[in-house]
């Protein structure tokens, strides 16, 4: 069992236990941890624990669609938000392995039409670590130009880069951390430039298809869990986005696909050793941030252990993909009820060592 460490702040009880609709696999301690969480949080979704890529515990709670009374299933897809960055970073490292990109090269190497001053200074690795200094022009532009139909209008990645991702640097590259969407729009443009393909097609060839992630897609599937802003009153929350936002947070996936990906990338040989090391090397210690995700030390069995810790938050969706390297345990949580990310993280942490 885990030694207790307050690396996360517990959130306030919200008083919704949910409805447990299935338990494909069972585990006494894991069930106790889930039951305890359901007493204080409005979680509904999927809990999956795996060892070396194999499921050892799963449980589903509540509904994928409350109004339609559609029960949550183990294979229900959810928007995984920023876990998409981890998949995108894996693709970029595959491109580096193929000799198509260099993470130490600047933007202008691959996007010669990008503004010359910034393009010559900002490196790909800095974009992937969110320390580029490129400001979030999308946020400021949309505030100044509110348009309820914005996401219905056609726009290419190149247009988005020119309009929203080419502002004056907010700080010198590598000196601050800024979790800016624009880093990942630029990376999308670079992937498209070096592959000659749309981002989604390149991702499919580089990562999604080779890993066998049949339910992982940047296009919302028909059975996607519904996103809820609140449960009382019951209010849905839309997750509108452009296709070029996929690299930052646009993918949906299932717990099973994420378990498979975690094992292949973290434990297996999907990336060669030098590229895996790059993926897991923390570039901004204050945030435990590596390339497209976090790597942190947490206590397990009374000892500090290294974990990969990927999280996602978009609209009402909340997700966690936690992976402990020494024993190859993976915990996947997928949820659609807008609970706090801190609560999700603490829940995932409590599940390690329960099976």
Quick structural gist:
Residues 31-340 form the Beta-lactamase-related domain. Keywords: Hydrolase. By secondary structure, this protein is α+β, with helices and mostly antiparallel strands.
Helix-strand blueprint:
Layout: E1 20-22, H1 28-38, E2 45-51, E3 54-61, E4 63-65, E5 70-71, E6 78-79, H2 83-97, H3 116-119, H4 124-128, H5 137-144, H6 157-164, H7 181-195, H8 199-208, E7 228-231, E8 234-236, H9 246-249, E9 252-253, H10 255-267, H11 273-280, E10 294-300, E11 303-314, E12 317-324, E13 329-335, H12 341-351
Antiparallel strand pairs: 1-3, 2-3, 2-13, 4-5, 6-9, 7-8, 10-11, 11-12, 12-13
Helix pairs in contact: 2-8, 2-11, 6-7
Protein name: Serine hydrolase
GO molecular function, one term: hydrolase activity
Pfam families: Beta-lactamase
End-to-end separation: 9 Å
Strand content: 15-25%
Low-confidence parts: 1-24
Order of helices and strands: EHEEEEEHHHHHHHEEHEHHEEEEH
Number of helices: 12
> The CATH topology of the largest domain, please?
Beta-lactamase
Structural class by SSE content: alpha+beta
Strand neighbour order, sheet with most strands: 1-3-2-13-12-11-10
* Silhouette: globular
Helix content: 25-40%
| Main sheet overview | 7 strands, antiparallel
Q: What is the total tally of β strands?
A: 13
CATH architecture of the largest domain: 3-Layer(aba) Sandwich
Structurally, the number of domains stands at 2
CATH superfamily of the largest domain: DD-peptidase/beta-lactamase superfamily
Mean pLDDT: 92
Estimated radius of gyration: 20 Å
CATH top level label of the largest domain: Alpha Beta
Keywords: Hydrolase
Protein name: Serine hydrolase
GO molecular function, one term: hydrolase activity
Pfam families: Beta-lactamase
């Amino acid at each position: 069992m885990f030694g207790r460490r307050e690396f996360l702040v517990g959130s306030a009880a919200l008083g919704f236990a949910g409805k447990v609709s299935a338990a494909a696999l069972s585990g006494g301690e894991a069930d106790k941890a889930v039951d305890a969480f359901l007493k204080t949080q409005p979680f509904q979704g999927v809990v999956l624990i795996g060892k070396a890529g194999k499921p050892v515990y799963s449980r589903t709670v509540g509904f994928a669609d409350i109004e339609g009374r559609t029960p949550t299933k183990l294979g229900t897809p959810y928007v995984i938000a920023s876990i998409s960055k981890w998949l995108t970073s894996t693709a970029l490292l595959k491109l580096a392995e193929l000799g198509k990109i260099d993470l130490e090269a600047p933007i202008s190497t691959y996007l010669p039409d990008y503004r010359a001053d910034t393009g010559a200074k900002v490196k790909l690795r800095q974009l992937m670590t969110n320390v580029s200094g490129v400001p979030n022009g999308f946020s400021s532009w949309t505030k100044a130009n509110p348009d309820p139909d914005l996401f219905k209008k056609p726009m290419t990645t190149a247009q988005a880069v020119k309009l929203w991702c080419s502002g004056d640097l907010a700080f010198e590259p590598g000196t601050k951390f800024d979790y800016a969407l624009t880093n990942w729009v630029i990376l999308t443009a670079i992937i498209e430039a070096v592959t000659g393909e749309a981002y989604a097609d390149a991702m499919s060839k580089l990562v999604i298809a080779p890993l066998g992630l049949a339910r992982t897609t940047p296009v919302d599937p028909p059975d996607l869990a519904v996103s809820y802003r609140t449960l009382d009153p019951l209010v849905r929350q839309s997750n509108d986005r452009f296709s070029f936002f996929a690299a930052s947070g646009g993918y949906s996936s299932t717990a099973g696909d994420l378990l498979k990906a975690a094992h292949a990338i973290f434990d297996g040989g999907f990336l060669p050793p030098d590229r895996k090391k790059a993926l897991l090397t923390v570039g901004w210690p204050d945030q435990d941030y590596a390339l497209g995700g976090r790597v942190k030390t947490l206590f397990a069995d009374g000892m500090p252990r290294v974990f990969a810790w990927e999280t996602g938050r978009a609209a009402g969706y909340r997700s966690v993909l936690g992976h402990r390297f020494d024993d190859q345990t993976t915990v996947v949580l997928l949820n659609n009820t807008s609970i706090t990310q801190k609560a999700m993280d603490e829940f995932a942490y409590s599940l390690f060592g329960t099976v």
